[in-house]
Structures are given as structure tokens and as C-alpha cells.
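sry for the spam today, last one i promise. C-alpha cells for design, 62 residues
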């Protein structure tokens, strides 16, 4: 496990290629999102079942 200070986190550099992202159309972004197996999209049915984190913590006694 790696520990980071607040300053370390603030200074982290992302790996996102923003020029590439900004050059894409909405259709291209949607197509890539649908094909991304690492981050499947949530259906409306599943989204309705999501609970706010505070209610889950309460149920767990945290």
C-alpha cells in the first residue's frame, strides 16, 4: 500500500490525453464507452437501486 500526503495528491499528474478527448465527437465517445469492458455502463434499472453512501454506512453501523 502506498501512502500519499495531501500535497502529493494535489501534485499528481493524470495520464489523460485531453487533446485526444477534446477532438472526439459525442458519438465516438459514446461508442468507446459502450465497448469499454473495464467500466460497463449502468442500466436505468440498476441506477435506481443505488443507495447514497451515507445510508449504506448507517445500515452497516459505521
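last one done:
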Amino acid at each position: 500500500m502506498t501512502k500519499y500526503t495531501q500535497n502529493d495528491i494535489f501534485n499528481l499528474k493524470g495520464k489523460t490525453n485531453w487533446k485526444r478527448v477534446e477532438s472526439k465527437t459525442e458519438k465516438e465517445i459514446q461508442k468507446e464507452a459502450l465497448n469499454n469492458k473495464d467500466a460497463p455502463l449502468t442500466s436505468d434499472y440498476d441506477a435506481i437501486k443505488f443507495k447514497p453512501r451515507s445510508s449504506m454506512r448507517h445500515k452497516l453501523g459505521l
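DSSP finds five helices and no strands in the chain. ok im logging off now
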